[in-house]
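queue> holo job accepted (manganese (II) ion)
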Amino acid sequence: MSADASQYVIAPPPQAAIKVKGSDKLFPVRRIWCVGRNYIEHIREMGQDERAPPFFFAKPADAIVHDGSVVPYPPLTKDMHHEVEMVVALKSGGSNIKPEQANDCIWGYGVGIDLTRRDLQVASREVKRPWEIGKAFDASAPCGPLVPASEIGHPTKGHIALRVNGVVKQDGDLSQMIWNVPETIWKLSEMVELAAGDIIMTGTPAGVGALVPGDKVECEIEGVGTLTISIGKPKA
Ligand code: MN
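queue> job finished
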């Protein structure tokens, strides 16, 4: 459904988007899906079941933060964690997408951070409440510039790393994903109909940890790109 701006009772909110590398173009974001527990060493550090099928949670599209930004330290937490993840950006979608067809839906790739209020996530989990307060807060989805698959292909291996103030904290390889990207698209598309503009954060390797105001966070995925943010003071 499309509507003329004058049909809305308030001004329509801005379209969430991610920058495209080497261009002034933008990738418009419809939905942000995230895969939980997709690298074995991270599952071990969180003390969770290593054989469970993939599961998903979402963040609001307007949680996107551009490369180079300052992320204000979020409210209500004393334990905000970094989780560096490869971002997959879809140019098409559907339901029940077979793994063999999944790569055809991908526009490109980038580097993201699934920022997590770990204390709130764990507290929610313990009382069997939803994760949103731990995962889906404002500015919780920094995303570096996307590169098109037409340029880099579909990465299945390559170093994925995150440094805080120059110190390596997360250091893994895309090949360590339990559910690879086509399988992830396949499983997610059984649950919801995917569409152009959807992005998927594909899980984090081991080494997650807390960030504090003043931290500089640098991420890199070999063959995909980089993302740098810093953590600012809480919003007044
Ligand atoms: Mn994550």
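queue> The longest strand covers residues 106-113.
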